[in-house]
Amino acid sequence: MPESARLTSHLTRSTYAMVLAGGRGSRLHQLTDWRAKPAVHFGGKFRIIDFTLSNCVNSGIRRVGVATQYKAQSLIRHLQQAWSFLDGRFHEFIEILPAQQQIDEERWYRGTADAVFQNLDVIRRARPEYVMVLSGDHVYRMDYSRMLAEHAASGADMTVGCIEVPVAEARDFGVMAVDASQRVIRFTEKPAQPDPMPGRPDVALASMGIYVFNAAFLFEQLLRDADDPKSSHDFGKDLIPHAVQRYRVQAHRLADSALGQPDKPPYWRDVGTLDAYWAANLDLVAVTPELNLYDHSWPIWTWQPQSPPAKFVFNDDGRRGQAVDAMVADGCIVSGASVRRSVLFNGVRVHSYASVEDSVILPAVDIGRGAVLRRCIVDRRCVIPPGLQIGVDPDADRQRFHVTEKGVTLVTPEMLGQTVHFIR
């Protein structure tokens, strides 16, 4: 076995990953009224958190904690169903860590650093040499073992995963300035004037919310931060800027560890707005999508119901069951209806003469006979009445539904006056 492979194997076995999955994602509006952002459905059969957890498992990191907080039941149930296959007898596990007010009975997680601090006892029991802190609400494919190997070789105390973004868009991120050796010399959270990359004035290095720490260093910094009354207990706002000024912090580019097409920029999406969520899902129906879900060497793991195959019925003029430039999951029935440039999750039923275009339809939606949907996101278990038109008249839609600035319409059961008794 090559030395690099032995090193990577040792590094991943010596690493504990903490996935922060407690956020609501308020910019997704009513789509996160009943579920945390990491539990939102994505890509026809997955949840957003499946991408981070699949990166862990595929990279060889098999000791993972998932910190939950906001409306976590949907997420917890998904984790129990989809991610219970690791065998604890071999010290491999994905452990659910709900907010438990462990430090103070009157205090929930106050920030990202505090969420890790409140679970220090769990991490210490694993006795890791390295700790990865990951966000559970982004969509990307990345080999974390490459980042770990680079971190160990650099002798850094901490490494920050980063992606190149246009300077004009960098104001929404934590931005790093680096020297020629990729050492971070300055870190600013959501700066008004982002630092550009050396020799590239139009591009900045933005944090992806992915961090590697030497375990002892992380414990020391979390204890110091917890005792600081002026801190907001956040990695981007407090802990990283403090570390950059005093210790060795390295930058690791996603391009060095991403899995994708070599001639294209690495794929990473923050699907934190309805428009971004809609666009990222519809990107998947392209002939050659930037996110390749069909790469068997790096599968995205999930739970899925035991459903029959998708079915398309009727072949009459004007009543033909068909889907073009679309992804249709198991259990769907397209009955004499037309589906174009859309993503249908499992168990969707589209009745005769209905038309669905440029839409994202979440699981178990029933679309009535003759209904028309254009540029929609339809939440789970909605029942679309026969003949209802959505996405045709934006002014009419705004009276009942949520319409984004770019004209995407979100539809939920509550907006349709329907009561749904289930965990979403």
UniProtKB/TrEMBL annotation:
Homotetramer. Pathway: Glycan biosynthesis; glycogen biosynthesis. The lineage of its organism: Bacteria, Pseudomonadati, Pseudomonadota, Betaproteobacteria, Burkholderiales. It is an enzyme of class 2 (transferase). Alpha-D-glucose 1-phosphate binds at Y109, G174, E189, K190, S207. One of its GO terms (biological process) is glycogen biosynthetic process. NCBIfam families: glgC (TIGR02091), PRK00725.1 (NF001947), PRK00844.1 (NF002023). One of its GO terms (molecular function) is glucose-1-phosphate adenylyltransferase activity. This is Glucose-1-phosphate adenylyltransferase. It comes from the Bacteria. It catalyses: alpha-D-glucose 1-phosphate + ATP + H(+) = ADP-alpha-D-glucose + diphosphate. Gene3D superfamilies: Hexapeptide repeat proteins, Spore Coat Polysaccharide Biosynthesis Protein SpsA, Chain A. Its EC number is 2.7.7.27. The record marks Q69, W108 as: Could play a key role in the communication between the regulatory and the substrate sites. Involved in the biosynthesis of ADP-glucose, a building block required for the elongation reactions to produce glycogen. Catalyzes the reaction between ATP and alpha-D-glucose 1-phosphate (G1P) to produce pyrophosphate and ADP-Glc. Residues 308-411 form the Glucose-1-phosphate adenylyltransferase/Bifunctional protein GlmU-like C-terminal hexapeptide domain. It comes from Inhella crocodyli. Residues 17-284 form the Nucleotidyl transferase domain. Belongs to the bacterial/plant glucose-1-phosphate adenylyltransferase family. InterPro entries: ADP-Glc_PPase (IPR011831), ADP_Glu_pyroP_CS (IPR005836), GlgC_bac (IPR023049), GlmU/GlgC-like_hexapep (IPR056818), NTP_transferase_dom (IPR005835), Nucleotide-diphossugar_trans (IPR029044), Trimer_LpxA-like_sf (IPR011004).
